[in-house]
Specification:
CATH superfamily of the largest domain: P-loop containing nucleotide triphosphate hydrolases
Shape: elongated
Order of helices and strands: EEEHEEEHHHEHEHEEHHEEEEEEEEEE
Structural class: alpha+beta
Strand content: 25-35%
Number of strands: 20
Bound molecules: adenosine-5'-triphosphate
Helix content: 10-25%
CATH architecture of the largest domain: 3-Layer(aba) Sandwich
Largest sheet: 6 strands, mixed
Distance between the termini: 18 Å
């Protein structure tokens, strides 16, 4: 089992190039989460895989080029954000629909629908119509409709976006369980980084139609290829400050305000360096080597607060348990172990090497 997207691009008649030279190869069963900001081309990518859009490049499924295959001829099933259920059909008929139109025997349909309904906790709802169901139940029907087709590739387009937080968590776990149970590859599009991190065996981070980075969630989080990925794959954003690399009795970055940060890893590098630190990794210290900033906003996060402080024409964000209020002067320190180093011109992670990547 394997899906290969080779230099896949899509330009709409309006001239918008929604997907640019996208390459991806899956090996065996994988749960690929595709994450990126709104408009970066995620849905278009799924539609290309499903055969709902035509583009350039090659799409190969299980060794067969499927560029000219219709959606029905590809072993795919899609689950949409808006469920896309037939309102006048009950749950059973919605789930059975795909099999019915493919001419599957009635008894086989029954076995498959009942089995999917049982797995998804829908056995008691089979005679109800979508309007009589909650959002979570509707999305489970949509999942069931995909499951009964036994596709090799499940394509999910932001399936949980319409649900509230609790339901999202519940269905997230249910989809993860389904993945464990089925012999299928999942391609799951989301703009939610928590979903992307927790569900995927591999994350593909997209921006502006292109792949910015692909790798295991841990690798992408720990070793972002560039500033965009570092910031996007952070729960509260990444702070960036540029300084000069000095090699004077050790290697360190010196910032305009005089603060310094050891950077022995950069001993083979020269020039300016943009240091990136996630908000949860920055600290407020009483005094010492850090950046003097003024608190401009404070947000409560239960036991902790998110502090926004103006610094050098920009803003530093710090997650802290310390009690600070608007107008306070604070010193924000960066830990060397948590710092990522980026080239200020290209935004690339100076220490990121392709061979470090698992993909
Ligand atoms: P979102 O997260 O908001 O759903 P997305 O990452 O899924 O966004 P796409 O829906 O694939 O992004 O859109 C990518 C780009 O292509 C956008 O600029 C969008 O406006 C454009 N686009 C999408 N569909 C069409 C279409 N049918 N015709 C023309 N342009 C389109």
């Amino acid at each position: 089992m394997g899906l290969t997207l080779s230099h896949v691009s899509k330009t709409y008649p309006s001239g918008i190039q929604a997907v640019k030279d996208f390459c991806l190869t899956t090996d065996g069963k994988e749960f690929i989460t595709v994450v990126g900001p709104s408009g970066c081309g995620k849905t278009t990518l799924l539609r290309l895989i499903a055969g709902l859009e035509k583009g350039e490049g090659d799409i190969v499924m299980d060794g067969r080029k499927v560029n000219d295959f219709s959606p029905k001829e590809r072993s795919v099933a899609m689950v949409f954000q808006n469920y896309a259920l037939f309102p006048y059909m009950n749950v059973y008929d919605n789930m059975a629909f795909g099999l019915k139109i493919s001419g599957t025997d009635k008894d086989i349909i029954r076995v498959k629908v009942l089995e999917a309904a049982q797995i998804l906790g829908l056995t008691g709802e089979l005679n109800r119509r979508p309007a009589e169901l909650s959002g979570g139940q509707r999305q489970r029907v949509a999942l069931g409709r995909a499951m009964v087709l036994s596709p090799k590739y499940f394509l999910f387009d932001e399936p949980l976006s319409n649900l509230d937080t609790d339901l999202r968590l519940e269905l997230r776990m249910q989809i993860a369980e389904l993945y464990e149970r089925l012999d299928a590859t999942f391609v799951y599009v989301t703009h939610d980084k928590v979903e992307a991190m927790t569900m995927g065996t591999r994350i593909v981070v997209m921006q502006d139609g292109k792949v910015e980075q692909s790798g295991t969630p841990k690798h992408v989080f720990d070793c972002p290829a560039n500033k965009f990925v570092g910031n996007f794959m952070s729960f509260y954003g990444m702070n960036f400050i540029t300084g000069k690399l000095k090699k004077d009795g050790g290697c360190f970055v010196e910032f305009e305000d005089g603060a310094t940060l050891p950077a022995d890893e950069l001993k083979d590098y020269d020039g300016n360096v943009t240091v990136g630190i996630r908000a949860e990794d920055a600290r407020i210290v009483e005094s010492g080597d850090g950046h003097l900033a003024t608190v401009v906003n404070v947000e409560m996060l239960g036991g902790e607060t998110l502090v926004y402080a103006s610094y050098g024409g920009g803003t530093l964000t710090v997650k802290t348990q310390k009690n600070v209020t608007k107008g306070d002067e604070i010193v924000v320190a960066f830990d060397k172990e948590k710092a990522r180093f980026f080239d200020p011109a290209s935004g690339k992670n100076i220490l990121w090497k392709k061979e470090n990547s698992e993909y």
